[in-house]
Design a protein that fits this description.
By secondary structure, this protein is of the alpha+beta class. Helix content is 46%, strand content 20%. Helix 1 (18-37) packs across helix 2 (51-74). The protein starts with 6 loop residues before the first strand and ends in a 7-residue tail after the last strand.
């Protein structure tokens, strides 16, 4: 191992690749919303604010986030992973 800036390279940790998980959360939210609103009657005026829809969107986002959080704690390995290097101190980095 070659020392660099007082550190030795120790290896890699596999960590979730968060930028790749974001689209999964968006897709899950949209699916929950689509399923919950599938039988709603179509609105004739789309320019009006719809409080019921806002509530459903908030609920879908909350549910998708809870499911994703639970899956991340229970089975992290099913999500895209990236390798993050870790280092440990060498003699230059230790106080004397």
């Amino acid at each position: 191992m070659v020392p660099a800036m007082g550190l030795y390279f120790g290896g890699f940790h596999d960590r979730p690749d968060w930028p790749k998980i974001g689209p999964s959360l968006l897709i899950a939210t949209c699916l929950i919303l689509a399923i919950r609103t599938a039988k709603w009657t179509q609105r004739s005026d789309n320019s009006l604010s719809d409080r019921d829809l806002e509530i459903e969107i908030d609920f879908a986002a909350h549910m998708a986030n809870r499911v994703l959080s639970k899956l991340m704690t229970k089975c992290e390995e099913i999500f895209p992973q990236k390798k993050e290097p870790w280092y440990h101190a060498n003699d230059e980095d230790v106080r004397k």
